[in-house]
Amino acid sequence: DYNIEILKVALRNVFNIEFIQIDALERNTTSVQSLILSNIHNVQALIIQQNNHYYCLRRFRLTKDYFFKIDSKFPLYHEPIHRGHILNFLRALLANHSNIYVLVHYTSDHADDQLSIDNIETRLWPLPDAPADLECLLDLHQTQ
User: Fold this and answer.
1) pLDDT tens, 41-76?
2) In this structure, are residues 96 and 88 in contact, taking their beta carbons and an 8 Å threshold?
3) 101, 46 in Cβ contact below 8 A?
4) What domains can you pick out in the chain, each with its CATH number?
5) How many CB atoms lie within 10 A of CB 32?
6) Residue 127: which pLDDT band, with cuts at 50, 70 and 90?
7) Which residues partner with 45 through β-bridges?
8) Most buried pick, 5, 24, 83, 134, via CB within 10 A?
């Protein structure tokens, strides 16, 4: 169990990643949240906080149609969630008072570097490739 601030600082220092919290799924929230929600199909990873437990929803390069729930409570099973169902999954999390954070590549605080329609696709894929990015994970969820 970690404080979210520790995770934020660690990912900022190691991978140059910032967290953007999604606290509602209405597209008329903040302009940044609306931009992310309208591009949810481009999100690489989300951090979910349920009480004092954290887990990740992550897409991989060769399996972009699915998010996988990566949770230390279930290290041998990564629940697949089709990206077409991700908003319903997130809606259920918010209804249960979970916190949702989208990982975004941080560039700078300069106004010209803010998240925009021109840079959203690259900014929403902030993590470096992992071995799983180079594997086709289709067999894991063909029954879905």
Assistant:
1) 999 999 999 988 999 999 999 888 999 999 999 888
2) no
3) yes
4) 4-134 (3.90.70.40)
5) 16
6) very high
7) 58
8) 83
Instruction: Give dist(CA 133, CA 37) in Å, integer.
Output: 23
Paired tokens of 94:
């918010």
Using the predicted structure, report yes or no on whether residue 96 has a pLDDT greater than 80: yes
